[in-house]
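G.,

No rush on this.
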Amino acid sequence: MSRRTSHPRRTSAARTRPAPAAVITAASPCPCGLPAEYAACCGRLHAGAAAPTCEALMRSRYAAFAVRDAAYLLHTWHPDTRPDILDLDPGTRWERLEILGTTEGSAFHATGTVTFRAYFKDNGRADSLYEKSRFVRHGGAWVYESAVDTD
């Protein structure tokens, strides 16, 4: 997931006050939508455990957007496509992830895709991001490579 805003930037005087980030604790429901606590789900990946599948990595990357963990997002991004910095918009609040499909991406594969819709609010306005993401193995670990053109 490579969230880049498609909305024109407003001047700071025109911006609305961003919604406070949701407080996610170890015992909170995981933002990725699986029925587990954050610490037992994506939190363990954010702490350094390897994602076993590309879907698990996708979910953990979504959760990293939700908890604003830019370091994890950069770490799990392929070095050939990774930006130098990642500026997460404080006015964006990630609300729900819907996995629409996957191809390959298990322990027995070198590549995989995850198609998803991520729901968010941008300065209070509801929106969503639809993407088919490509994941590859790099150094033995799953990493996000790029969005796949679905046309």
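When you get to it, here's the other one too:
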Amino acid sequence: MTPPATTLTDSVTRQLDLLSAQLSQAGPQQAAQILQQVLDSENGILGRLTSLVVTGTYVTKHHAQTGTFPAEMWLALGRTANTLHDLALDLDEHQEVFEEIAARRSLATSSPAATQATALVARGRHR
């Protein structure tokens, strides 16, 4: 018999695959709606994933202290949790844009200037 946690993990993985497939086929408005919900740092998938990794950090720390897990596992999960948190904060800056695009009635009825393609500019934080 499959343990409940394994079944749950498999189910979540399948759901994420379905969502990814839907996102890949979505128009701009639906893509913005999906991304707005996914990238929400508190209630979205990214926020929940960050919480899950933080929980894993605490669990791994406990097991590392008892000698069951190597300390490196705990440290790696801690770094991952911190990185996810930082990424979520960076993406929070763009939530309003996703909300605005998702709320539009139709991109076809908006002004040509609003839908005109623009050059992509990549900005990143340097550490």
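The chain has six helices and no strands. The two ends are 47 Å apart (CA to CA).

Enjoy the weekend,
O.
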